[in-house]
C-alpha cells in the first residue's frame, strides 16, 4: 500500500502589478500545511517559488544574512514590499461597503466578509468580525439574527441556519432572493400562457374537424341525391340490403375493384356494382381471369 502523502505545488510569485501578494501567501501557506512543511521549511522553500522582481528582492534582502530568517519575518517583509499603497485602507473600504447581494447565499456572504476582515486585521477578534458582517446582512435576516447570541462566526452561522429552517417551516420553501422570485413568477406566467394557448388550439382543431365532418356529410348527401335523380339503377341500389357503393364523382374517371375468378359478383360491393352497372361476366370471361 502506497503511504506517500499528497504534494501540492504552490503558485509562483513575480511581484507584477497584476499579482496579489496576499493571495499568493495564503495559497503558499495552504500548500505548506498539506505538504506537512514546518515554518523553517516554508522559509527555506519560498525561494523556489519566486521569480522576476520578487526573486531579485528576496536575494537582495538576504545578501548580508548568514542564516535564513524566520518565516514570520519573510512574510512581513514581502507584505511591506509588494502590498499596494494604502492596501489596508482599500480593503477596509471594501468591507464597509460590502452588502449581501439579492441573489447571494447568506453563508457565502459571511465567508467573503470574514475574509475581508482578516485581510484588514489578521488578529481581528471574533466579535468585531461579527459586527462587520451583521452590517451587511439583508435587513430581514439581520432583524431576526440580531436578537440572538452572536459572539463568534460559528454562532452566527448556526443562527442563520435556524432562521432558514424557520422560514422553510413557515413558507414550505427555502429563502428566495428577489431575482429568484421574479424568475419563478415569470416561469409561472409563461406556463399559464402556454396552457391557455394550447387550450385555444385544441378548441380550434375540434371546430375544424367538426366543420370538415359536416361539410363531408353535406357533400355526400348532395352527391347521393344527384345520383338518385339521374340514375334509376343507382336509386334502387340497396333494395336487397347490398353494401353501399359510391361511383366516381367525375364521369371520365374509372374505379377498379377486385372480384373472384368465377365472375359471379354475387356478394359485397361487387354485387352492388353489378346491380348498378349490370352483369359484366360475359365480357370479362374472355379475359380468362386467374385470380
CATH architectural designation of one domain: Orthogonal Bundle
Straight-line distance between termini:
84 Å
- Chain-averaged pLDDT: 81
- Report the β-strand fraction as a percent range: under 5%
Q: What Rg do the Cα atoms give?
A: 46 Å
SSE series: HHHHHHHHHHHHH
CATH topology grouping of one domain: Non-ribosomal Peptide Synthetase Peptidyl Carrier Protein, Chain A
**Total number of helices:** 13
Q: How many beta-strand segments?
A: 0
> Class by helix and strand content?
mainly alpha
Tell me the major beta sheet. Answer: none
CATH class of one domain: Mainly Alpha
Model regions low in confidence, pLDDT < 50 over at least 5 residues: none
What does this structure look like?
62% of the residues lie in helices and 0% in strands. It is mostly helical. Among the domains are: 21-83, no CATH class; 87-171, Non-ribosomal Peptide Synthetase Peptidyl Carrier Protein, Chain A (Orthogonal Bundle), CATH 1.10.1200; 177-216. α5 packs antiparallel against α6 (106-120) and α6 (106-120) crosses α7 (126-136). 11% of the residues are buried. The model has no long low-confidence stretch (mean pLDDT 81).
Secondary structure: elements and pairs:
Layout: H1 21-35, H2 39-45, H3 52-61, H4 71-82, H5 87-97, H6 106-120, H7 126-136, H8 139-145, H9 153-171, H10 178-230, H11 232-235, H12 268-277, H13 281-285
